[in-house]
Each structure stands twice: as C-alpha cells, then as structure tokens.
Amino acid sequence: MYKLIKQENNARRGEFQTVHGTVQTPAFMNVATAAAIKGGVSAYDLKDIKCQVMLSNTYHLHLRPGDEVVHKMGGIRKFTGWDGPVLTDSGGFQVFSLAKLRNIKEEGVTFASHIDGHKIFMGPEESMRIQSNLGSTIAMAFDECMENPAEYNYAKNSCARTTRWLYRCKAEMDRLNALESTINPNQMLFGINQGSTYRDLRIEHMKQIAELDLDGYAIGGLAVGESTEEMYEIIEAVEPHMPKNKIRYLMGVGTPGNILEAVHRGVDLFDCVMPSRNARHGHAFTNEGCRNLLNAKYTLDDQPIDPECDCPVCRKHSRAYIHHLFKAGEMLAMRLTVLHNLYFYNNLMERIRKALDEGCFEAFYNTYSEKINKRI
C-alpha cells in the first residue's frame, strides 16, 4: 500500500508498505540480476549501503539455478539472505533484448535461451508462476518491451496485447496467492505502461491499465533508444493519468541526473544496472560528477573517491589505492567501487527525501540537476 506523505510541485514523498517491510520513497532498487550484485557484493553488504529494495531477474533465475530450485530453498529472500522487500521483473525485457530467435504469439513468446540455445516458452501465466516460486514481494506483469523507435501500428497492437496479458497475469497471481504451497501469498503485482514514444498510445494505455487497481504502476520501454528529452516528455504525458494513491516506478533508469529529473516529474521508484556496471569499469559517481579512477592522475591521490561521501569505502580507502587495484586487475577494485556507487545512489535518494520533508526539493533540484551528471 502506498501512502503519499507530502508533495512539492510534482515531486512526491511517500511510504510503500509491503509484507516484507516499509519502503521510504523516492527510492532506488539495487539490481541483483542473478540473485547477486555483480562486483562481489552480497545481500548482507546491502544493509551497509542504505539499500531498501533488492531487484532480481525472473528470466535469469528461471534459467539458472531454476525457479523451482529457489522455491525449494525457501524463496529468493532466504536463498540470498536479504530480509527486505524484493522486486522481480517479469522476464519480458530479457526475452526481447537477449533472445536472438523469438516468436511472439497471443499465448506468449517462444525463444532460445541465450545460455545454450534450448527452446523456452514464456507467457503471462509462466512468468507469474516463476515469480511466485521465487517468492518475491513484488512481481512485475509480463509485457512486450519494444525497441525505440517502433512503428506506430506495431506499437498500438503491442500495447493492446500487453493489456490482455496483464489481465491474465492478475488472474494467475490471484490463483497462485491462494495456494497452500505459495511462499508469499501476499505477493503484489505491478502493471507496466508501454507505447513507445507515442504520447497518445502511452496515455490511452495508462488509462486502461489503471482500471485494474493494481498495487503499483511502472513506466516501461524507456531508455531503450530514445533521446533523454523524449523520455522526459513521455513521463510528463503519462504522469497525470497514473493513480495518485499508487506507487510509480520508472524501469531501468538511469543516471543520477535522470533520477532527479524523474522525481521532479512525479516518479517514486527506480532501478538501473548503471551504478554497478560503471563501477566495474572504474567509473565512480560523486557529488562533483563522474570520476574515472583508471586515469593516471589518481596514481598518488590520497583523497577518498568523494570527499563529501561517508560510505564504508570513502572512509577507509584512497583514490590511489583503488586506481592501483584496477591496474593490477584485482577483484577488490570492482567490489569497492560498486559499493561506493550503490551507496551514492541510495544516499542521493535519502537526500532527495530529506529535501522533500523540509520543503526545499526545488532548491535541491536546481543545485544538482546539471552538476551531478558532469564528467570530471
């Protein structure tokens, strides 16, 4: 259940209550694709870096180790050791981005595994069953994620199919939540808004899925080829039609600046692989902008990654040491930088919430919206 506490223009400060804990919003979800954050970070580390929600991937866990294995191990939370809320995405995005051979029909999608090429079928019911086996707090509806730009008529037909699939997802989840063997009988369902970059399709689709009175609503299919300006325009178009009393999730976005802009436009929840992926290549986010720790200028730099940061890494290690670890090919370089970046994102969300609590978000936004994205 979502509770709106305060609003400053479109920016929202809220709480999202789940069976596995209450999430303070706006919030960032740390991406643990295959039940682990890449870079040697465990679920137990997440508590030290202010994480509230862990996100895992339905498609990847279905392939390895298998969702039935996770079910037998007591569900994703027991399996990983994470005791907070978990969101599982439906597998839709991976089916459309990783599967080289796929055949989309009304029933669902037949595709080849990116691991060994074996044929897999996934539709709304299969996605719900996998996510129920995982026992996540929040399950995402199975949708079709289109590439941008998409042809108008294709996008229109795809939206209609995604809506039909959503009704099937809801019916199957209701059935699964009533079973005695279900790990989390209080599993929530979020619907996903699609429509490529067409404002009319986005608005109409949002109106349709809002009628289902789901636990939350996501804007999907962005950050997949369109410009940043187009992404912001779509958020602005869809936002007035999203239920005010439900949590709003922008999927797969993005840079610290993207997040700040989306909060400014009324979004509550985010996820992105960027902080961990960039960290593994030596790129650290700071209050001054993005810093490339591979640069030779850090060879003798005894400062922390970010002098304003109080994360476990910045309290103990210098830029020079982490620069050395990257040059030496040590795994510790990735772990330390991933921990810093994830802390930076979670701490940014905490500062945004504080600014909203104190009624000064607009000033915070004006101070950091450009500064936070620059490269040092």
UniProtKB/TrEMBL annotation:
Substrates-to-products reaction catalysed: 7-aminomethyl-7-carbaguanine + guanosine(34) in tRNA = 7-aminomethyl-7-carbaguanosine(34) in tRNA + guanine
Q: Superkingdom of the source?
A: Bacteria
Q: Does the keyword ATP-binding apply?
A: no
Q: In which pathway does it act?
A: tRNA modification; tRNA-queuosine biosynthesis
Tell me the ranges covered by the tRNA-guanine(15) transglycosylase-like domain, including all copies: 10-372
Q: Where does Zn(2+) bind?
A: C309, C311, C314, H340
A Gene Ontology molecular function term for this protein is:
glycosyltransferase activity
Q: Which residues form the active site?
A: D89, D271
Cofactor annotation comment: Binds 1 zinc ion per subunit.
Identify which cofactors the protein needs according to its UniProt entry.
Answer: Zn(2+)
Identify the Pfam families for this entry: TGT (PF01702)
Q: Quote the record's binding site residues for substrate.
A: D89, S90, G91, G92, F93, D143, Q194, G221
The protein's UniProt keywords, in alphabetical order, are:
Glycosyltransferase, Metal-binding, Queuosine biosynthesis, Transferase, tRNA processing, Zinc
Q: List the EC numbers from the record.
A: 2.4.2.29
Positions of region (RNA binding): 252-258
Q: How does it assemble?
A: Homodimer. Within each dimer, one monomer is responsible for RNA recognition and catalysis, while the other monomer binds to the replacement base PreQ1.
Function description: Catalyzes the base-exchange of a guanine (G) residue with the queuine precursor 7-aminomethyl-7-deazaguanine (PreQ1) at position 34 (anticodon wobble position) in tRNAs with GU(N) anticodons (tRNA-Asp, -Asn, -His and -Tyr). Catalysis occurs through a double-displacement mechanism. The nucleophile active site attacks the C1' of nucleotide 34 to detach the guanine base from the RNA, forming a covalent enzyme-RNA intermediate. The proton acceptor active site deprotonates the incoming PreQ1, allowing a nucleophilic attack on the C1' of the ribose to form the product.
Q: Which family does it belong to?
A: Belongs to the queuine tRNA-ribosyltransferase family.
The name this protein goes by in its record: Queuine tRNA-ribosyltransferase
Q: Which organism is it from?
A: Anaeromassilibacillus senegalensis
Gene symbol of the encoding locus:
tgt
